C-alpha cells in the first residue's frame, strides 16, 4: 500500500528550538526550501519590530524586556495561517507562555548538539551572542544547556544536529518530521 507523503499535508508552522549555535537559522532555511514554505527567523523579526539589534535590546533594556517583546512577536507570527518554518531564539521556548503557544499552533523540533559543537559554532561570530559576553562563555553555555534542556525536551521532535553538515541535519529533520506526521495520522 502506497501512502501519500505526509509532508505534503503539513498544515501548520514548523518551529525550530534549541541553543544558540545549534543551526536553527541555517537548517531552517534549508528545511523551508525543501518544504516550499517561507522561512522566518524570530530574532530578525524582533530586530525589525524594535528597529535595533538583539544585542542592543539586551544592553539597553535588559533580558526581561527582550523576552516580553520576543513573546509578542512570536505570538503574532504564529497567528499567521501560513505553514512557515520558524526559528526561535535560544531562550524563547524556555518561556512557559511561548512554549504553550508553539504547542497549540505548531510542530516543535528541538535541534540538539553537544557542548563542543555549540562552542565551535558560536565562536565563529564573537560578540553577537549577548548571553555569552562573559569571561567564560563555555561555562555559560554549559549552564544554559543544563537549565534549558527540560523545556527543550518538551518539543514534539528531537533531532541531533552535531552529526554532520547543516544539509545532513535538514535531511534528518525532514525524516523525523515525516515520521512524526505519519504517527499523528488517525
Automatic annotation (TrEMBL):
Gene3D superfamilies hit by this protein: P-loop containing nucleotide triphosphate hydrolases (3.40.50.300)
Keyword Lipid metabolism set for record: no
Protein residues bound to substrate: 43, 67, 90, 148
Record-linked PROSITE patterns: SHIKIMATE_KINASE
CDD domains tied to this protein: SK
Swiss-Prot/TrEMBL GO biological process terms: amino acid biosynthetic process; aromatic amino acid family biosynthetic process; chorismate biosynthetic process
Quaternary data: Monomer.
Protein name: Shikimate kinase
Amino acid at each position: 500500500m502506497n501512502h501519500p507523503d505526509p509532508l505534503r499535508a503539513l498544515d501548520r508552522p514548523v518551529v525550530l528550538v534549541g541553543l544558540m549555535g545549534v543551526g536553527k537559522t541555517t537548517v531552517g532555511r534549508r528545511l523551508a526550501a525543501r518544504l516550499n514554505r517561507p522561512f522566518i527567523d524570530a530574532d530578525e523579526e524582533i530586530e525589525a519590530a524594535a528597529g535595533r539589534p538583539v544585542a542592543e535590546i539586551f544592553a539597553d533594556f535588559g533580558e526581561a524586556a527582550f523576552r516580553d517583546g520576543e513573546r509578542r512577536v512570536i505570538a503574532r507570527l504564529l497567528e499567521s495561517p501560513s505553514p512557515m518554518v520558524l526559528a526561535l531564539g535560544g531562550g524563547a521556548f524556555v518561556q512557559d507562555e511561548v512554549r504553550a503557544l508553539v504547542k497549540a499552533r505548531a510542530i516543535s523540533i528541538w535541534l540538539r548538539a553537544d557542548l563542543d559543537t555549540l562552542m565551535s559554532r558560536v565562536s565563529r561570530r564573537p560578540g553577537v551572542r549577548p548571553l555569552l559576553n562573559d569571561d567564560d562563555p563555555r561555562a555559560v553555555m554549559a549552564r544554559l544547556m543544563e537549565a534549558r534542556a527540560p523545556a527543550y525536551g518538551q518539543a514534539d521532535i528531537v533531532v541531533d544536529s552535531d552529526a554532520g553538515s547543516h544539509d545532513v541535519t535538514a535531511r534528518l529533520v525532514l525524516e523525523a518530521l515525516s515520521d512524526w506526521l505519519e504517527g499523528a495520522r488517525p
